[in-house]
Amino acid sequence: MLILLFAACAGPAPKVKRVLVIGIDGVRVDVLAQAETPTIDSLIVAGAFTTSARNVLPTVSGPNWSSMMTGATPDKHGVHSNNFSGNAYDEFPDFLTRLERIDRAFETIAIVDWPPLGSTAAGGPLFGDSVDFRVLVNGDELDYEVADSFVTREAVRALETQDPHAMVVYLGNVDVVGHEHGSLSPEYRASIETADAQVGVILAALRARPTYIEEDWLLLISTDHGRRDDGGHGGESELERTIFYLTSGPSAMAIEPGAAVTLLDVAATALAHLGVAIDPSWQLDGKVVGLRQQ
To answer: Is residue 287 part of a domain?
Structure first.
């Protein structure tokens, strides 16, 4: 008699969840639609995208980047202008810091070129000292066009040499060009196209990781505010309040038509992808958007 014994077939090992958040400062959505952005276009095909998301008031960078990264409104995190003094980041930390508080095994990275995001300038930093790898390329000193290129290089280096679970990259030049040349200028449109190319360079490094096939990366890309025709912002007009929100990757899911999306949703979505349940005691205002729930 021939007896065949079959070992139980185990399924494929689950992929390691990872998050990359890219913030591009000051992108107006109608100009984004007109610009040549092949990288962002390709990510939209593989993800979820809306150009009707909203930011918080006032429509300036300090409160909006704080809200995006903490998932809390300005009345909670305490930043109401580009002066970060008096912030409540101890109670409402950026999501990288929150990950470190939950489990130091998470490897976290923030690479930025606006000083308050990564240093004590103007009452910062937004990203706390417990973040594993925090790089500030000072755009105020270097010029933001140069600084963004350095941020891109540092992001590539981090993806090549480190093992991040959650990583934030901030590009500041689009906002600077908008202020200098106005929102309808060819220079402003070109700056968006340059940022798209830089996202492409970072994405290529991510996909070239030796462990990429074993990883489930969620890309989250958004901006902090739109702008008026003259390039200014800070008011309550639709041009200033309307932003884009993009998730992309194997775990991304289409956003339901008519869904209310805000930049507050970035932190909650990033945490959820990493398997972190939102504790009601955190009092977050964001929700999970554009992510297939496991």
So the answer is: no
